[in-house]
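Entry for the shared binder. Reason: the reviewer on the internal report wants the predicted structure included alongside the sequence.
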Amino acid sequence: MPQAQASIVIARDPDTIFAITNDIARWPELFKEYSKATVLSFERSGRFARIEFELTNAEGETWQSWRILDYEKREAIAQRGNPKFPFFYMHLTWTYEPVDGGVLMTWTQDFEMDPKAPVTNEQVLARMTNHMQENQKHFKEVLESMPEAAR
């Protein structure tokens, strides 16, 4: 099972960063490749929340996913839903660890490509790791440049 992982320190309060980065409606602002993000359902019970949502990328491709937020641990786990192709599966975990100077945000993606996909696990792993690092740099720029009132 291939696994991509990337981390970055963001100079902001961990709870604030957890809240903003898991606000699906804001993802087009945080991810350059998403043109639209629609929350289909949001249910919160105590320390946990479950979100179902739909994403549309710049090429117009749309898929659904779900995400479970643990507000106490500052952790998000997610899974890509339909359509899954070109993946056989895609599982994600985002963690937020308080560190000197802010929060260490780590993304881990476990996946396997569908056997019918035109690319291999190894090809996607290299691209995905690079892409995650680029996305995290963009998150850092956006989040650290936000005025206090916008967070």
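Summary line for the report: The longest strand covers residues 87-99.
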